[in-house]
Design goal:
Structural class: alpha/beta
Radius of gyration: 25 Å
Helix content: 25-40%
Bound molecules: ligand MGD, iron/sulfur cluster, molybdenum atom
Strand order of the largest sheet: 5-4-17-16-15-6
Largest sheet: 6 strands, mixed
Distance between the termini: 59 Å
Length: 705
Amino acid sequence: MGAWYTRRVPERDELRWGRSTVETACPLDCPDTCSLAVSVEKGRLTRIDGSHRQAATGGYICSKVRRFGDRVYGSDRIQRPGLRVGARGEGRFRDVSWDEALDAVAHRMREVRARDGGEAILPVSYGGSNGLVTQDTADAELFRRVGAARLARTVCAAPTTAAAAALYGRMPGVTYADYEHAQLIIIWGANPSTTGIHLVPHVRAAVKAGAALVVVDPRRTPLARQADIHLAVRPGTDVGVALAMHRFLFEEGLADDAFLSAHASGADRLRERAAEWTIERAAAVADVDADLLQRVAELYAEASPAVIRCGWGLERNRNGGSAALAVLALPAVAGKFGVRGGGYSMSNSAAVDLSAKPWIGAREPATRVVNMNRLGRALTGEDGPPVRFLFVYNCNPAATMPDQNRVLRGLAREDLFTVVFDQVMTDTARWADVVLPATTFLEHYDVAHSYGLGALQLVQPVIEAIGDARPNAEVFAELARRLGIDVSSTLRSDPEALLHVAGALPDGVRDTLLAHGLAEPPGAEAPVQFVDVFPRTADRRVHLFPEALDREAPEGLYRFQPDPATHAYPLALVSPASDKTVTSTLGELRARPATLHMHPADAARRNLATGDTARVFNAGGEVHCPVTVNAGVRPGVVSLPKGLWRKSTLNGSTANALVPDALTDLGGGACFNDARVEVTRIVTAGLEGQSIALWTGGDAPVRSH
Ligand SMILES: Nc1nc2c(c(=O)[nH]1)N[C@H]1C(S)=C(S)[C@@H](COP(=O)(O)OP(=O)(O)OC[C@H]3O[C@@H](n4cnc5c(=O)[nH]c(N)nc54)[C@H](O)[C@@H]3O)O[C@H]1N2
Ligand SMILES: Nc1nc2c(c(=O)[nH]1)N[C@H]1C(S)=C(S)[C@@H](COP(=O)(O)OP(=O)(O)OC[C@H]3O[C@@H](n4cnc5c(=O)[nH]c(N)nc54)[C@H](O)[C@@H]3O)O[C@H]1N2
Ligand code: SF4
Ligand SMILES: [Mo]
């Protein structure tokens, strides 16, 4: 084992002094997991480009990662461990050695554990990387052995995962290249032109060859502009739209009864729940043209191969779980499986089943579970005893979790001890008592795990660590040692952790991965659903009406909870992914304030024009930012990018200040696209027409209400 690994190590000297191009992969939280060719000269990055190792990413990458060097060498980079000086939240730290920093962390952890118990300690980690080494290795062993509270990692994909697991046991989906075989493509609540760019050329090729394209999205995304039909639904109404399509299929005798009786259960119960959703009712609720919706239902019934790309935009509201279920159930009811280019794609992260994480050498304790979407409440003590010791890594919750003002109030608590381990001085790191510098994927080993394409790829250091930055495994193992906790010796450094994790992969996958740097797990290579792959449910059938979920959902499955808009807050705020960041990663490089996009009719009613400054508000908070009037968002909807740093608005609040910490119907997910707001123009005496000052940090404006 380890041909790749041993071949690589001697090259590090060459990397430091010579000029070379190194093969690695992008482990950021993006479905594509591009293979990369990174050029280094005298130890410094000179170019980050795509490589051809992974055919599916075809040698090109996004502009974000091309400029990742600006993060690596940027002024926001944390270079040394630091202890807080000055007031909490000011973001001022004194450089210390790793020994001093880790001693301080270990001391407080011991103290809190002795006084308040392990459950007063909360580790918070999420989307920093999709790597198998940088999360759930030494960190998991440490926090499990400490008996810390457990984090439910629900901020993303919880409802869609619950739906895909219940229906199909997370069967692998249609691969990007197979979209070229489709006669009909439905892009539902996804914006691949930003969030998974390697799908787009295949969609275009299919359209060029005559396929019909339908996009379901409140915004006119780049693919919506090219679509035959764009259903600009109101956010949160997809469940009704998809159920109307089911009703149409059943009522018109277009459901595939042969497929349903051979491969599915629960079709009758689904049919019952769909019965109330006539095309007219769904069109009225979603505020789309009934004839267009009818046409989509007919097209879907007629066309084959027909494929649905289900995204994550539709899950982030109170109906999100049922919406994902109803959308993902369509190919079963309409009989779209069994042909290349037919079926659905969702997440492919289960293509190789790593959920057991056999490399973690400690059993999960039965401690308190904190749903990360309610982090603010956990920190303020509104959901049980308050957390006393917070350890944040691979995550930037001050910017990315719902109910931002509550999260900030929690971080401001004087009796909370906060450690933030990150690459850059994030909005969360500013609140830390101790900051620890982390390496980037260009400075450490990892295994990138694609949730779009299903492949595994090796990630390796291309440059030496910047400053005193260290990889996760090493830091957690070192902290554990100080606490007298015995983490597996195999997790003491990231190359050891890499070999340990790889060692737990299925034989074929491990050997290919280590020898070639890339492994396509069986089942992930362009499978035809119901030919090459089948549901991974216990009975290998599609469960169209999973009874357990029906009990979990507050109103039952496939039910519609009405729009939360009120007279005071009539506009729906969505916060889609931006092409400048991966959630908040790289957000430090945004030079200008982000703008609120608003439909001309809504803007006119509020006397707003492009460039005006707006106050976007509801009972949870307010955001001050410039406006862009844009007919590409549907009336009644406004849009601010997800992942903004606080400096990217005029008052230091982002979309999440307006996002309630309500949970989705299934999976305990986040309701990011369920905020309802009002917008008014800010008129500053004497300043009208001029730009008002940007928020610069310092006194963090923590609004209480
Ligand atoms: N460039 C870039 N790429 C990324 C990311 C990033 O931040 N930047 N993030 C990564 C991550 S973490 C994820 S989870 C994925 C997300 O990938 P996507 O799901 O593609 O991204 P989103 O922008 O969250 O949502 C997609 C679309 O859903 C629409 N939408 C919002 N509400 C609704 C609704 O109720 N119904 C319907 N039908 N549509 C709705 C939005 O307008 C948006 O265009 O992308 C990944 N890729
Ligand atoms: N308003 C709104 N908010 C959203 C969403 C939305 O749609 N709307 N979408 C949500 C979604 S889809 C997601 S996935 C979450 C993601 O939210 P987060 O999990 O907070 O992800 P990021 O913002 O990318 O922050 C990851 C942090 O990890 C750090 N990091 C990266 N690699 C390493 C490492 O190896 N070691 C350490 N120690 N740190 C590392 C990065 O520098 C970065 O600061 O945000 C959610 N937030
Ligand atoms: S963020 Fe996505 S598109 Fe960009 S390089 Fe990484 S995997 Fe590729
Ligand atoms: Mo996500």
